[in-house]
Amino acid sequence: MLVLKNIHKEFNTTGNPEDLVVALDDVSLTIEEGEFVTIIGTNGSGKSTTMNIITGAMMPDRGQIFLNGADITHMNEHERARYYGRVFQDPMMGTATEMSVLENLEVAYRKGKVHSPFKWGFSKQEKEYFINELKKFDLGIEEKLNKKVGTMSGGQRQALTLLMATMRNLPSHNRIRKEYVYFAEGDKHKAKEEVETGYKLAKDKYLKAKLAIKNDKSLTSQQRKEQLKQAYETFDSEVRKFDVTKPILLLDEHTAALDPKTAKKVLEITDKIVHESKMTALMITHNMADALKYGNRLIMFAHGKIVLDISGEEKAKMQVNDLYNLFQVQNNIE
Amino acid sequence: MDILNLIRLVLSSGLPCCLLAIGVFLTFRILDFADMTAEGSLLLGGSTCVVMLFNGVPAPIATICGMLVGGACGFITGCLNRLLKIPKLLSGIITMTASASLALLILGFSKTPFRFTSLVTLTDQKTIFSFLPASIFKGWQIPIVTSAIVILMIFVIYFFFGTEYGMAIRATGINERMAKAQGINTTVTTIACTTISNSLIGLAGALICQIEASMNTASATGYLVVGLASILIGETVFGKRSFKNSLISICLGSIVYFTIISLATFVFHMPSELSKILYAVLIVLALCLPMIKEGIMKLWNKIFKKKTVEVK
Q1: CATH value at residue B102
Q2: Which of A64, A81, A156, A216 is a Cys-bridge partner for A152, taking CB atoms 3.0 to 4.6 Å apart?
Q3: Rounded to an integer, what distance in angstroms lies between the CA atom of residue B45 and that of residue B67?
Q4: Is residue B163 part of a domain?
Q5: Which domain holds residue B265?
Q6: Which of B29, B182, B186, B187 to mutate to test the interface with A (most CBs of A within 10 A)?
Q7: Whole-complex ipTM
Q8: A108 to chain B: which residues are within 8 Å by CB?
Q9: Does A86 sit within 8 Å of B164, measured CB to CB?
Q10: What is the pTM of this model?
Q11: Using an 8 Å Cβ cutoff, are A20 and A10 in contact?
Q12: Model pLDDT for residues A194-214, shown as the tens digit of each residue
């Protein structure tokens, strides 16, 4: 759950009072887990500023941001990055163009982990994983793994950025336990007790199962190996139940710079990923039809305020024309 | 002058500059940071090394200390830029300016009692090249030891920039917003890269002072330009397809640069007063090389592939 509480942001505060721009005017917004929110609004209405404040690229003048139960208003951008996946409007922005596709993916795969100066940055397993994921896009990127990203088309780059934003190197058990407490709502001590007992139970069960398998003389070494692996997987999945920080996908007009056909394809891929992984997603778009077609909640910004917030049935009933009229009324367009 | 001697001279002056050029390359190309610290860290690295040798410290330790002092200069530049938000170019210039006085201070430790000095000359102190007996190698010990160090450093740098952290540094240099969005602490990566780059330059300074057996406060002037020229010549002549390719190209570029200069001074007996003009011309040539290359290709196509143009 992502909560913006009375966020206020002004630009040009030091100059001439006439130049003062109120980008966000006391905006409050709550996004539940699993929601796919589309955001529309004119240029300068505060959509991108909201996104920049969520990611930490900008600091709000007033107000707070909560991720689950934790106040992250003053958390650095790079520390927050592990809770977000971000795709920019400019296809050049989301990737390092001078690095190869593989290198870009490897960098993205280390998100939220310690970058070790002693560990070689590539591995065979990871490469296979990337190839598998890229094949799903059906854009032929998997054949260009060693090519520089700069040589690829805008659509391919956005698809690559999308993968970099959505794939996840699972956090370690320690991290899960720590974050469960950090992001807990209400009593942190209770949360700590809860996660520690849960972890201990799972671990005890795993150790017992391990011992039993090791002592079982009737098994062949192959069977033993498989059963041990299985036991670990059950343990792992039980611990992962406490994983509260599924990344939120932030899409900042990510199809605006693409041709209509590619834009459609990238949007479809986006929709598929969001549905399959049940990610929480925020998508800024200028296309009313797309805003209605995708997602289950729609927000309209005008003059730094949220002027429309519909979801579910109400959104499903909304027609493009109605939305367009509403858009014009809100922005005082004749 | 016979050819063997010329080669020895070129290698003796060119090889330490490979390290310098790689150092400049790491900030200039990889980090996209126009780092003016180079001359400062070269000077301080050399001064530290020469003073330690003068006071009887074993050569390997003195060389490593020179490297560390160079790295410290880079660390300060990185901190000025990242923590105090001083523009990149300016933070390098600030460190370079301070280093001129610091060098006088460091070189002063060669006098008892302490006195600010601008020149220290080694007499019979052992340098890192004294490990190979001069009677057998006859002057070749310098190219042998330096090339070993250069090759070692190329390997270290190549592997470092292939590690997880090295890739994070490269991503920072290419696209800082992307790096931040991927959870990379760009403040630390920038400072780390300027530190690594300048420790290489400090090492180059330490080697240069041992080759020349002296160090004065003016001897580092002009080396930044040498480093840049080596990068430009290397990249245009030998290519920059990949990171590995770039590293090797730059080293070869530095050798080519010193070959031209040595030919001019020793074979064509150019008066040393005119040497700066030659440097300037060389750099202009290096900068224009891509254009010249393109022009030649166009001319080539015009003469030999006229038919294909007509078909179009």
Answers
A1: 1.10.3470
A2: A156
A3: 6
A4: yes
A5: 3-115+127-307
A6: B182
A7: 0.87
A8: 182
A9: no
A10: 0.88
A11: yes
A12: 889 999 999 999 999 888 888
